[in-house]
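Posting this for the archive.
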Amino acid sequence: MGDLWHENILISVEQRPPRLYIVDWELARTGLPGSEIGLFCAYLELLGQGSRVARESTSTMLQSFLDAYVQTSSRDIRLAQDTSVHWGINIIFWTPRDPPGSKELVQSLVRRGVEFLVHSRDLYFLAQSPLKDLLPMSV
């Protein structure tokens, strides 16, 4: 179960550069990487749909998060596949519950979630997706 979202992130601005601390108030344990990354990516994507101003910032945050993750861990097909599944599931589940806009936007986001879910084992899809950097270089 993924639980990595903004309310579980603390930022210390007293340090230079600022440091991030990830805490889990309810489940004090390490989660499954694909589940955690998928939830966080879906959350950022949905947050970015709420306003035009937030879209660019959350897109930058999403790419920065994935870039930093790749720098600190190994690239792994299974991780990219699991992340795609959880990204899709969370978009499908959360979008209708907290709609970020019009009915058309909600439908478009749910379709995107279905796409992440259905194509999660398709290496061509993953190589064209925001998850491309999680894949090994040889794929």
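The mean pLDDT is 88. Strands lie at 9-12, 19-22.
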